[in-house]
Amino acid sequence: MPAAPLGGSWRLSGRLWPTLRDPPADAEAVSHVLMVRAGLVRQLAAGLYTVLPMGLRVLRRVEAIVRQEMEAIGAQEIVMPLLHPAEIWEATGRYPLDEQFRLEDRGGRAMVLGMTHEEIITWHAAREIQSYRDLPQSWWQMHTKLRDEPRPKSGMLRVREFVMKDSYSLDRDEAGLERSYAAHSEAYARIFDRCGIAWHLVESDVGMMGGLGAHEFMAPSPAGEDVIARCPACDYAANVELATSVPIEPDFGATPAEPEPFDTPGIGTIAELSAFTDLPPARHAKSVVVVTDGGPVLALVRGEHQVHDTKLAREVGPHRPAHEEEIRGWFGADPGSLGPVGLDGVRVVADHSLAIGHYVTGANRDGVHLRGVVLGRDFAAATADLREVLPGEACAGCGTPLVLEPVIEIGNIFKLGTRYSAALGAGYLDADGHEQDIIMGSYGIGPARVAAAAIEQGHDEAGIIWPRAIAPFDVHLVLIGAPGSEAAGYADRLYDELSERGLEVLYDDRVHTKPGEKFVEAELLGCPLRVTVGKRTLPHGPLEVQVRRGREQREIALGAAANALRELWSSQA
RNA sequence: CGGGACGUGGCGCAGGCUGGUAGCGCACCUGCUUUGGGAGCAGGGGGUCGCCGGUUCAAAUCCGGCCGUCCCGACCA
Questions:
Q1: Which nucleotide is nearest to A515 (CA to C1')?
Q2: The complex's ipTM?
Q3: Which element (helix H / strand E) includes A127?
Q4: pLDDT, tens only, A428-464
Q5: How far is the CA of A45 from the C1' of B67 (A)?
Q6: With A545 labelled, which of A195, A201, A204, A371 sits at a CA distance of 20 to 30 A?
Q7: Which nucleotides in chain B lie closer than 7 A to a protein CB?
Q8: Single pTM value for the model
Q9: A25 CB burial (10 A radius; 0-12, 13-18, 19+)
Q10: CA-based angle A423:A428:A432, to the nearest 5?
Q11: Mind listing the pLDDT tens digit for each residue in A251-280?
């Protein structure tokens, strides 16, 4: 049987299916171009898309797979409002988030459009869950989220309004959370496998969700906004926001007894400095100045590394880059000659890698640097993981060089713990009669992103190549011949026979469309099999079949053609 | 939010410097021909040139402001 039969078969004539010959001017991402050209979606405004009938079929198939796998782990489907009273969000401190759409009702009551539903789920849990006997629970919905994104982009990959499958687990204790978390993780793995998408499970930052830990499901694609570091040998994989590695150590030579100043006229960047000193970038320490609520912070990484903002934020909290005037005031020098030695009133945080070796740093005097600077001896600093992993650095687990690759985030899972239940009073009485906070988890999938990722991973110059499970149709049947012709009669019968065998068929029975146009549009849409029925091969056959992936031509005998097509369909990815 | 680009029939674009009654391709309508890879010929319909203001006898074109969309950097299904 088809993976997710849903919409039934269609005759194409009279349907809304507007395809475009040219790529839209404002589309860049492959999935964006193809979704618009193939008549799946139309843009209303930045980050807002209308899903057309053909696109909706794809989403429905993804959703059906998600729904089956949610049912399979015992999660229960509900639907929550999109419009929320603001005070629920105030209770968890997330009301001021920039992504929140805010509005008032006619009575002046502050409301928000839901960007996610942790608060609402927890609010209900606080009322419906009384006893440890009521736990565990998993509740989920397939519903719209609204986010005032700073920058919608790449078509359906980053939008302001989208449907999310979001589920929430409620448990008595952390062991229960671990079970719910694992159940969701395994369900997600099945979902993405069934959708025919290549993916990696990676460790991730908890971000705005907060909580105890998180993972993301990442689909490799050049169009991706995230980057993961992955070990080809063991199973280590993490978002670069979190990834660690063993850096490649330079040869430090002997450590000088004390820092030695030297003139570096006009030197500003690590590259210039490295050329000037004839030492590799790894022998230098890079100074990055940010401003936090608690004042200026100097972040130090080795010259070949970049400070990763999320990592720095975990250490020092929210921050912004310092202005040049501020830097002059604190350091007495311009950016380019900054360093940690002899600093007063500036907190210094160094990457772990600086604990070994001695380094060239700025001397906090314009045009002067120090060589032989040693952490702990010449300056004091906390060490932390601040740097972004570089490709080729060793996996901390097994030593194999890591690979970095761009990815699309298609799903995520969070161990929330008690952050929301504590804030909203969602507790239960345990077996001893003690009040406990519910331990929560939250789990999201964006079906439209799954579809977009499938296109990013499956396309050629002619158009989309859908994985069979989420293609809009299983078979694209192209009739070449007028109504009443022998070809039309045969195509009508084949349409019925294929449909009876559980295949969903798009029957291109349009009368005023040229054969060439039908072929081109079929390849643009990208269903797994295209069958052509025309007088060229009738009445004796064979049927011409094109396998979309690779555009390979096959011939199928007329007798038992429907069964043969079903077999061929079953063999597709 | 910082930086860049672009807004001209449904779609893709030209015109703009050098102001003078808006053009091309596709799509659409009618007719004939055509019917296996986005058909041919003929005829036809459709645009306050993003908006507001300014300069000018005259503005798609020059100037100013605003709005919108996309791309690059800081944020997330």
A1: B36
A2: 0.92
A3: helix A118-128
A4: 999 999 999 999 999 999 999 999 999 999 999 999 9
A5: 13
A6: A195
A7: 1-2, 6, 11-13, 25-26, 35-39, 68-77
A8: 0.93
A9: exposed
A10: 130
A11: 999 999 999 999 988 887 888 888 899 999
